[in-house]
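quick one
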Amino acid sequence: MVIPMKIRIPATSANIGSGFDSLGLALNMYNYVWMEEQEGVEIISLDDTPVPTDKSNLIYQSAQYLYDLCGRRLPGLKIKQLNNIPMARGLGSSSACIVAGLLGANRLLNSPLSTDDLVNIAAVKEGHPDNSTPAILGGLVTAVLDGGKVYKVKQEIMQHMRFAAFIPDFELKTEVARHALPREIAHKDGAYNLARAALMSVSLYSGHFENLRVAAGDKLHQPYRLQYITGASEVFGLSYDLGAYATYISGAGSTLMSIISDQNSGEFEEKARKALDGMGLDKWRIEVLDIDNSGTKVTAS
Ligand code: HSE
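structure w/ L-homoserine:
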């Protein structure tokens, strides 16, 4: 009997300012994918997000990749996808597709690969580990991809904070945002980020909120990417005026993420909404999210 799999994959927020290609965390905004083997390809989007409906679909491609890796023939797949993570906004939508394809296929094959194997494969496919690893494991992840293997620590975050995502109405493709980066940087800029990334990782985990604004400081990617996010400097300004602990470009953008207190997140959202509207940024969405400590869940549906 063919048992369909249901996969729930969290959104992620990578870099967290200073931790370029290394730090990332999972959030409680989810894509859902239903996947089952069948002859031929059938792919359905359950919302109004247009998705490729042939073998070029990233979920399908990732599943095919895993079948090939395991030496198994993929007859075809029926895939239904519900896309809550907006595309090309720095919230891990493509890594969610890669993770769904890999973990769904692994389960369809009765789990020949371990979670660590899947973490490694997903990071190699994505090119960096800071979205795919928290998407699989959940929590706050500090990760290094070295020689095809991810060296990582996942920490469950229980601290009193929330994440206000300022989501613009425009996309920013990761290729474009990476192309904007310089090939070389000054030694002092490397040292600047190194210290702050270490501070970010441990301060988020331990709840030292007073460190977060300095820890989010970055000279490796954000200064080069801000040009693509019209309205970013205003949003940075308003978020700090409203008491954000830290604000940074989520992943490669275009979303800006504020880490805020869980005590007054409703008030923060209300005031931020009014401020955005007043600045002509009325098409931006604000989503106040929490950490997801569980990562991707695969169940027989
Ligand atoms: N670390 C990556 C980047 C995240 O900033 O380009 C986007 O996938």
